[in-house]
Design a protein that fits this description.
With about 230 residues, the protein is α/β, with parallel strands linked by helices. It has 2 domains: about 70 residues, no CATH class; about 140 residues, Trna Endonuclease, Chain: A, domain 1 (3-Layer(aba) Sandwich), CATH 3.40.1350. The protein is built from 7 helices and 10 strands. The strands form 4 sheets. It has a 4-stranded mixed β-sheet with strand order 7-8-9-10. Strands 1-2 form a two-stranded parallel sheet. Strands 3-4 form a two-stranded antiparallel sheet. It is elongated.
């Protein structure tokens, strides 16, 4: 039977049936136990709550995530996985999409939105996804509430955010300047919101720029510049 009183010796609560069935709760008193755990937490004494998989990891001397407790109404609480910094920056998996073609008068529109509608832009996204996939890296879009960068991924404890710019059918210097401004803005927002996270900004171009000065300019402001098809440096 589970221990339901919270003496000073209790530091761990296992929520749910254990995969090994070593410990079970026939009375199904999980909700009241979690309420007690939350009460202890509110008094400044942390009680770690893990699920069956987490407890199994602990038995194998592996780390297990401590679950957050959220109100479920009627005096009950439910455990949920704590949101990681990465999940608050990176959203769903990024997919290449089909787009239409630019019309002659379209350059009077918002260049940021217009660029995302070009075939060259999407082709570059597809090439980037394929390049990182060969390194077993999954590319994501931005998470809700995060800046609207074009692509993001993580490697170790670093989070990379990228703005992608096509150079076909537009002034190269205009596109690159726009991209630099956007990615520096996104990076500043993310570093302000997540100061302990290593945010790495990248500007990805459809093809090599004709003027080599852009690489040194990008490096001078802490920005990595790369382009299809080789994506050097990433």
């Amino acid at each position: 039977m589970p221990k339901t009183d919270f003496s000073r010796k209790v530091t761990l609560v296992v929520y749910g049936d254990l995969a090994s069935k070593v410990v079970t709760d026939d009375r199904r008193t999980y909700s009241s136990t979690l309420v007690d755990a939350e009460a202890e937490r509110s008094q400044g004494r942390h009680i770690c709550v893990v699920d069956a998989d987490g407890f199994s990891n602990l038995l194998k001397e592996r780390p297990a995530p401590c679950l957050e407790l959220r109100s479920a109404g009627a005096g009950r609480v439910r455990p949920v996985a704590a949101a990681t910094t990465e999940s608050r920056i990176l959203g769903r998996v990024l997919r290449m999409r089909r787009t239409g073609r630019r019309l002659p008068g379209d350059l009077t529109l918002d260049l940021s939105r217009l660029d995302k509608a070009t075939a060259a832009h999407e082709a570059t996204i597809g090439a980037l996804i394929a390049h990182l996939s060969r390194q077993d890296i999954e590319v994501h879009t931005y998470a809700p509430g995060a800046p609207a960068f074009d692509a993001g991924w993580s490697r170790g404890d670093e989070v990379f955010v990228a703005e992608i710019k096509s150079l076909t059918g537009a002034r190269e210097d205009q596109q690159i300047r726009l991209g630099i401004g956007q990615i520096l803005d996104y990076t500043h927002q993310l570093r302000t919101a997540f100061p302990s996270t290593l945010i790495r900004p990248i500007l990805v171009l459809e093809k090599p720029p004709t003027d080599a000065r852009w690489t040194s300019l990008a490096g001078s402001v802490g920005l990595r510049l790369t382009w299809a098809p080789g994506f050097s440096g990433i």
